[in-house]
Design a protein that fits this description.
The structure holds two protein chains of two kinds. Chain A is an alpha/beta fold. Helix content of chain A is about 25%, strand content about 30%. In chain A, helix 7 links the parallel strand 7 and strand 8. The longest helix of chain A is centred in the middle third of the chain and has 18 residues. Chain A is globular. By secondary structure, chain B is α+β, with helices and mostly antiparallel strands. Chain B folds into three domains: about 325 residues, no CATH class; about 130 residues, no CATH class; about 160 residues, no CATH class. The longest helix of chain B is centred in the last third of the chain and has 45 residues. Chain B is flat and about 115 Å long. The chains are: A alpha/beta, B alpha+beta. The interface between A and B is medium-sized, with 29 and 20 residues. The complex binds adenosine-5'-triphosphate and magnesium ion. Magnesium ion (MG) binds next to helix 1 of chain A.
Chain lengths: ~300, ~800
C-alpha cells in the first residue's frame, strides 16, 4: 500500500475492523476490584474514524489497551482486524501488534524513542517486523504528515504537535488496518490539536485505515463522523454526523445503546434538563417510543420526544 | 536503521549505567584473573621462604663416593668431567626441578689431613690441614696473593696449593715456602661471598678453626686447596683415597615463584630413587640423597592451606563484584523500561529483546573483561611455569567454600531475624506515634528490596572479619608456639648450669632471675591409686614461676610446688591421668600431686612427666644431676634481645634464644604476605560492599517514591522523609553488620579448625584469637559506609519527593 494514494479500505478479513461484545475488564489491586469495563459493545467498520469520549475513569484507556493487544479482557469477546483477541497465542499476538494495529498515546514521550531521529523512530517498527525498504517508506510517511524536513531531528528537538505527527507516522509504519489513539492531543494546545486531528483524519482517509481516537476534547466531533460516549465502562450514546453533498455538516443524530435486556441509557444532559428521576412515563408512538417525566401528562404536553 | 545501529544507539543513549556494567565486569574479571596469580605468588613465597631457611645439609642434593687417583697424565681433569656429567644430569631433569637446582659443585678430600707441630711461638701445639680439591674454587674466591696452584705432577713430591688468606696470615706463611710436608704455598685467597650457602659444604674455605684441649693447648684446623687434576694423579707423588662430594644447591630466588611443591616433590622422589652414571664407561654411578623431600611436603601443606584461605576470602570480593554486575544490569534495564515497553507494544518478540540484550551483554563482557584482564596482567606477574594451586584435598576445598556457604545460610537466617526485629519495632513506634518511623519500618517489612543490601553487608563484613581473624589467630598461635618453645623471655641451653655459670648469668644487666631446670630421672614409676605410669622427672627451682610469668602460655604452676615444708610435691603432665592428688614416685616415695598440665613451656617434656622442686627432690634423696637449661626472667624495662646478646658474649658455647626470635622464625614470608592480603581483601570487600548497597538502593529507590510522595502530601518535612528512610534501611543493615561479624568469626573458626597451619604454629592447633583493633576498624569502616549509604538514600528520597 502506498500511503500517498487514497484507497478504499480493503481487508483480508470479513466484517468490521473493531467488534466488541459484552467486554468486561476487572482490575484487582490489593484485594479491591475495579470494574473498568462492564459489558461494553462497540462496532467500527473498516475505514471509519470514530471518537471515543467519556469522563475520566470511564474505561477508555482500558478499552484501547485491550484493542491494541497489550491487555486481555476478563470477559466478553473482542475482534480487531479479524483477530479474536480472546484466543490469541503469543506468536499471533506479536504478529498482531506488528501488522494489524498501530497506536498513539497521550504522552508524547511515550510514543517515540528519545534517542532516535524522527526517521529512525518511524523505521523502528519496520525493523522489528523485518520489513524492507524502511528508509523510503519512512520518508514517504513523514512527507505525508508534512514532516519531511524534520526527519533527522530527535524527538526532544520537535514541538509536541510535531512529535505526535511523527508518532502517527510510526504507528502507520507497518500499514496496520486499525489505528488506536489515546488522547493524542491531550498535551497540545488548540492549534496543534487541530493539526494533529486533521492529520489523523487525513492519513486515515488516504490509507483506508480505521481510526479510534480517545479524547476529552469536545471539538473532536468536528473532525470525525461518529462520536461514541462511554460511561461507567459501557458505551452509552452516540452522535453521528451526516454530511451534505458539499461536505458540510448537514445534521447531527443522537443514538443510545439498548442492551439485550432492553435497557437504554439516556444522555445526562437530557435527564437533567427534564428532571427525569426514579420513574419515567413511556408513550408508544408510531414506530417510536417517547419518554416523559412521570409528573407531566403527555396528553397535555406541548412538545414531542425527549 | 538496522538492528546493529539500534543496539549502538541504545548503548550510547544511556552511557553512564552501561559504563557501570562494564566497570563492574572489569572488576569481576580482574579479581578472578588475579586469583591464580595471588595463589601462585603465595605458593612461591612459601617455597622460597622454606628454601631460604634451609641449611645446605637439609636442602642440597648430594652424592658421595670414594675413589683413588687412576691416571698418570696431568692432562686428564676428572673434576671437569664429573661436573659436566652432573650438569647434563641437571639439564635432563624435568621442570621445575631443573630450575630449582643450581649447577653442580664438587669437593674432593684427599686421604688423611696433614699435621705438623709448629714452633711454640705460633701459639698452637699443632696444625692440621685437610687436602682438598674444590672444583669451582676459583669461581667463588678471590686471589689475595700469589697464583693459583699449578697441576700436580705424579712424579713430583711437592704439590702447589693455596690456603685461606686469614690462616696464612695467622701462621705467617710466605709464598713459595713449604709449610707442610709435600705442599708448596702458591697463593692465598678469600671467599668473594662468605655467606654463600656453598661454604656450608666447604666450611674450611671460609674460616679456620681453633680446637682447644685443656691439656695440650690450641690446635689450628684448616685446609690446603690443590688443583683439580689432583683428583686424577694424587698429591705429592702419593695416591690417597679420595672422598668425593658432589652437590646441587637449591635456588631460593624468585624464579621459584608459584612453584607447586607437590609437583616438585614428585620429581625429586623420582630422581632420588634412581642411580645416575657420571662416566660414560659406567664405572661410576651415583645415587643422590637429600632431605628436601620432607621440606617440600611441609611446603605443599602450606601451599594448600594458603590456597584454601585465599579462595575462601576471595569469595567476598568476587561475590560482591558479581552482585554489582547484576545490579548495574538491573539499573540499565530499569532505565530502559519505557522504551522496552514501547518496542514490545510495537511487536518486538521476546526473542528479539533477548537477542539485543545478548549482543549488548557480550559486547560489555568483552570490553569490561579485556580491560579487567589487561589491568591484572599489567599489575601482577603471570603465574610462573609449573605454577598451580596443586590439588586441594577434600577438606581444603570444603574449607575454601565454607565461608561462602555459611554466609548464604546466614543470609537466610538473618532475613528471618530481620522480619522479626522489624515486627518488634512496629509496636513501640506505633505507641510513640512516630509516623515516619512507622512508615519506614512497615515499608521495610513489606518490600523485598532489602535482601540485596543485606547480603552485600553480610558478605562484606564476614569476609573482612574472616581475613583479620584468621590472621590474628595464626599470629596468636605462632606466639604461643614461640613461647611454648622458649618458655621464658630468654632461654639458655647447653652448658651445665653450675653455681658459677648461674652467677655469670645473673651478673648480666637486665637479668631478673634464673630458673634452673634439670632432667633428673627417666622412666620413674609413678604409682597412682588406679595405675602405675612411668614418667620423666624434671626438677626446677622456684624462679621458674618468675620465668613463666608474663608468657602467653604461662602454665600457672602452684607456688606450693616449691614449698619444701612437707615432703615432695609434683605437677604431672602429658599422659599421666588427671585428678589424682597423691602417689608414690620411685625411690622418693609418697608425693603430693598438685595438678596436671599438658606441657611445660621451654622444656621438652616426654609423653608422661612430673615436675618437682629440685630442693625437695634432693632432700628426699633423689638423684640430682646439674641442670642444662636455664629460663631467664628479664627485669622490668630491660629488653630480652639485649640481655640475650650480652649472655651470648658471657657464655660462648651456650645456645641463647629469645621468645621474640622464635616468633620471628615462625613468621614465614607466606604468612606475612597472607596478612597483607587479608587486609587488602578486607578493604576491597568493604569498598565493593558500599558500591553494591548504593547500587541496590538506587535500583530499589523507585519503590520508595510513592511512599515519599504520600508523606509529602501529608505535609511531612524533609526531616521526616529522611527519618522514614533511615527507619526503613538501618535496622536490617545493622542486623546484617552484627550477623556478619558473628558469621565471620564462625567462618574463621572453621578455617582454623580444618586447615593445617603447622608451618606457622608448629605442633599446636591454631586457636581462635580476635584482633580487637581489626574488628573495631572493620566495624568503624562499615558503619561509616552505611551511614553514607543511608544518608544518600534519604537525601534522594527527600529530593525526589519534591518533584511533582
Ligand atoms: N492497571 C490498573 N489497575 C487497577 N485499576 C485500573 C488499572 N487501569 C485502570 N484502572 C481503573 O479502571 C478504571 C478505568 O480506567 P481507565 O484508565 O480505562 O479510564 P479512562 O477512561 O482512560 O480515564 P482517563 O480519561 O482519566 O484517562 C479506573 O477506575 C481506573 O482506576
Ligand atoms: Mg485514559
Amino acid at each position: 500500500m502506498t500511503p500517498t494514494s487514497t484507497r478504499p479500505p480493503s481487508r483480508d478479513h470479513a466484517g468490521p475492523d473493531i467488534w466488541c461484545e459484552d467486554l468486561v475488564r476487572i482490575f484487582t489491586t490489593e484485594g479491591a476490584e475495579v470494574q473498568a469495563l462492564q459489558g461494553l459493545n462497540l462496532v467500527v467498520e473498516p475505514g471509519e474514524v470514530v471518537a471515543l469520549v467519556g469522563a475520566s475513569g470511564s474505561g477508555k484507556s482500558t478499552l484501547l489497551g485491550i484493542l491494541s493487544g497489550l491487555d486481555r479482557p476478563t470477559g466478553g469477546r473482542a475482534r480487531v482486524a479479524g483477530h479474536d483477541l480472546t484466543a490469541m497465542r503469543p506468536r499471533q499476538r506479536i504478529s498482531f501488534r506488528r501488522h494489524s494495529v498501530g497506536f498513539i498515546w497521550q504522552q508524547t514521550s511515550q510514543n517515540l524513542v528519545p534517542h532516535l531521529s524522527a526517521a529512525d523512530n518511524v523505521m523502528l517498527p519496520m525493523m522489528i517486523a523485518g520489513r524492507r525498504d524502511r528508509a523510503a517508506r519512512a520518508h514517504d510517511l513523514l512527507d505525508m504528515l508534512g514532516l519531511a524536513d524534520q526527519s533527522r531531528r530527535l524527538p526532544p528537538e520537535l514541538s509536541g504537535g510535531q512529535q505526535q505527527r511523527v508518532a502517527i507516522a510510526t504507528a502507520l509504519a507497518n500499514a496496520p488496518d486499525v489505528l488506536l489513539a489515546d488522547e493524542p492531543t491531550g498535551e497540545l494546545d488548540d492549534e496543534n490539536s487541530a493539526a494533529v486531528l486533521e492529520a489523523l483524519r487525513g492519513v486515515a482517509q488516504l490509507t483506508g485505515t480505521t481510526v479510534l481516537i480517545v479524547t476529552h476534547d469536545p471539538t473532536v466531533s468536528d473532525h470525525v463522523e461518529r462520536t461514541v460516549q462511554i460511561r461507567d465502562g459501557r458505551t452509552s450514546t452516540e452522535v453521528v454526523r451526516r454530511f451534505d453533498a458539499a461536505g458540510r455538516t448537514e445534521a447531527w443524530e443522537e443514538y443510545t445503546v439498548i442492551d439485550r435486556a432492553g435497557r437504554i441509557q439516556l444522555p445526562k444532559a437530557h435527564v437533567e434538563e427534564l428532571g427525569l428521576r426514579d420513574r419515567v412515563r413511556l408513550r408508544h408512538g408510531d414506530g417510536h417510543v417517547e419518554v416523559w417525566p412521570a409528573t407531566r401528562d403527555p396528553r397535555h404536553g406541548a412538545e414531542e420526544g425527549s | 536503521m538496522t538492528p546493529l545501529s539500534w543496539i549502538v544507539s541504545r548503548l550510547r543513549a544511556g552511557l553512564a549505567p552501561v559504563v557501570a556494567v562494564a566497570v563492574a565486569v572489569a572488576v569481576t574479571v580482574a579479581l578472578i584473573a588475579a586469583l591464580p596469580r595471588v595463589v601462585a605468588d603465595l605458593a612461591g613465597r612459601a617455597t622460597s621462604g622454606a628454601f631460604a631457611t634451609l641449611s645446605a645439609r637439609e636442602g642440597d642434593l648430594m652424592a658421595r663416593w670414594r675413589g683413588a687417583p687412576a691416571a698418570t697424565a696431568t692432562t686428564t681433569d676428572p673434576g671437569a668431567a664429573y661436573l659436566e656429567a652432573a650438569e647434563d644430569l641437571r639439564q635432563a631433569q624435568p621442570r621445575p626441578l631443573r630450575d630449582v637446582l643450581v649447577p653442580p659443585q664438587l669437593l674432593g678430600e684427599l686421604g688423611f689431613p696433614l699435621s705438623v707441630t709448629p714452633p711454640a711461638s705460633s701459639g698452637y701445639h699443632r696444625l692440621t690441614f685437610a687436602v682438598l680439591v674444590d672444583a669451582t674454587l676459583e669461581e667463588h674466591t678471590r686471589l689475595v696473593s700469589g697464583a693459583w696452584p699449578r697441576p700436580p705432577d705424579a712424579a713430583d713430591p711437592v704439590t702447589e696449593a693455596v690456603v685461606l688468606h686469614d690462616a696464612a696470615e695467622r701462621l705467617g706463611w710466605v709464598l713459595g715456602s713449604e709449610p707442610l710436608p709435600g705442599i708448596r704455598l702458591a697463593g692465598t685467597f678469600r671467599p668473594t661471598d662468605p655467606h654463600d650457602r656453598r661454604w656450608e659444604q666447604v666450611p674450611r674455605g671460609v674460616r679456620y678453626a681453633e680446637l682447644v684441649d685443656p691439656n695440650l693447648g690450641t690446635e689450628l684446623v684448616s685446609a690446603v686447596f690443590v688443583d683439580r687434576r689432583a683428583l686424577a694423579v694424587g698429591v705429592s707423588g702419593k695416591r690417597p683415597q679420595i672422598i668425593h662430594t658432589l652437590w646441587y644447591g637449591i635456588s631460593a630466588d624468585t624464579e621459584s615463584a608459584g612453584l607447586d611443591a607437590e609437583v616438585l616433590a614428585g620429581q625429586l622422589t623420582a630422581t632420588l630413587a634412581r642411580t645416575h652414571d657420571l662416566t660414560t664407561d659406567g664405572r661410576l654411578s651415583i645415587r643422590l640423597f637429600s632431605e628436601l623431600g620432607d621440606v617440600l611436603d611441609a611446603v605443599s601443606v602450606q601451599q594448600r592451606t594458603l590456597t584454601a584461605l585465599v579462595l575462601a576470602m576471595a569469595a567476598g570480593p568476587v561475590g560482591l563484584s558479581i552482585l554489582l554486575v547484576w545490579l548495574a544490569a538491573v539499573g540499565v534495564r530499569a532505565r530502559r523500561a519505557t522504551v522496552t515497553a514501547l518496542v514490545r507494544a510495537r511487536g518486538a518478540s521476546p526473542g528479539q529483546l533477548r537477542a539485543w540484550a545478548l549482543t549488548e551483554g557480550v559486547a560489555l563482557l568483552l570490553v569490561g573483561g579485556l580491560a579487567g584482564y589487561a589491568v591484572v596482567d599489567a599489575a601482577l606477574p603471570g603465574p610462573g611455569r609449573g605454577a598451580g594451586v596443586g590439588s586441594l584435598s577434600g577438606t581444603d576445598a570444603l574449607a575454601a567454600v565454607a565461608p561462602t556457604l555459611l554466609t548464604v545460610a546466614g543470609g537466610i537466617l538473618v532475613w528471618r531475624l530481620r522480619q522479626g526485629v522489624l515486627r518488634l519495632l512496629v509496636g513501640p513506634l506505633r505507641t510513640r506515634r512516630s509516623l515516619p518511623g512507622l512508615l519506614g519500618v512497615l515499608r521495610a517489612l513489606r518490600g523485598s528490596g532489602g535482601a540485596l543490601p543485606l547480603i552485600a553487608v553480610l558478605l562484606g563484613v564476614s569476609v573482612a572479619v574472616v581475613g583479620g581473624t584468621v590472621s590474628a589467630s595464626l599470629d596468636a598461635t605462632a606466639r604461643d608456639a614461640a613461647w611454648g618453645l622458649n618458655g621464658a623471655p630468654v632461654r639458655i641451653a647447653g652448658p651445665r648450669m653450675t653455681d658459677d655459670v648461674v652467677a655469670r648469668i645473673e651478673s648480666v644487666d637486665g637479668v631478673a632471675s634464673v630458673a634452673r631446670v634439670a632432667r633428673v630421672a627417666d622412666a620413674v614409676p609413678l604409682q597412682l591409686p588406679e595405675q602405675t605410669i612411668h614418667v620423666g622427672v624434671w626438677a626446677a627451682d622456684d624462679h621458674l614461676l618468675d620465668a613463666y610469668r608474663g608468657s602467653p602460655v604461662d602454665p600457672g604452676l602452684p607456688p606450693a610446688l616449691f614449698g619444701s615444708a612437707d615432703g615432695v610435691a609434683a605437677v604431672v603432665g602429658g599422659l599421666v591421668p588427671e585428678g589424682a592428688t597423691g602417689g608414690r614416685l620411685g625411690s622418693v616415695g609418697q608425693v603430693r600431686l598438685l595438678g596436671h598440665r599438658d606441657l611445660l613451656p621451654g622444656i621438652a617434656t616426654p609423653d608422661a612427666w612430673a615436675l618437682v622442686s629440685s630442693e625437695a627432690w634432693a632432700s628426699a634423696g633423689g638423684e640430682a644431676p646439674t641442670a642444662t637449661i636455664a629460663l631467664v626472667a628479664v627485669a622490668d624495662g630491660a629488653r630480652a634481645d639485649e640481655v640475650a646478646s650480652a649472655l651470648r658474649v658471657q657464655l660462648d658455647t651456650a645456645v641463647v634464644s629469645t621468645a621474640e626470635e622464635q616468633l620471628r622464625g615462625r613468621h614465614v614470608p607466606a604468612s606475612l604476605a597472607f596478612a597483607r592480603l587479608a587486609t587488602a581483601t578486607g578493604l576491597a570487600t568493604l569498598v565493593l560492599m558500599t558500591g553494591a548497597i548504593l547500587a541496590a538502593d538506587a535500583v530499589g529507590a523507585a519503590t520508595r517514591r510513592d511512599a515519599t510522595a504520600r508523606l509529602r502530601a501529608l505535609g511531612a518535612p524533609d526531616r521526616d522523609i529522611r527519618l522514614s528512610v533511615v527507619w526503613e534501611t538501618a535496622p536490617g543493615l545493622l542486623l546484617a553488620v552484627a550477623s556478619g561479624i558473628g558469621l565471620g568469626i564462625g567462618a574463621a573458626a572453621l578455617l582454623l579448625g580444618w586447615l593445617d597451619y603447622g608451618f606457622i604454629t608448629g605442633a599446636r592447633r591454631a586457636r581462635l584469637a580476635l584482633d580487637p583493633a581489626w574488628l573495631a576498624a572493620v566495624l568503624g569502616l562499615v558503619l561509616v559506609a552505611l551511614a553514607a549509604v543511608i544518608t544518600t538514600a534519604a537525601r534522594r528520597a527527600a529530593r525526589e519527593g519534591e518533584a511533582p
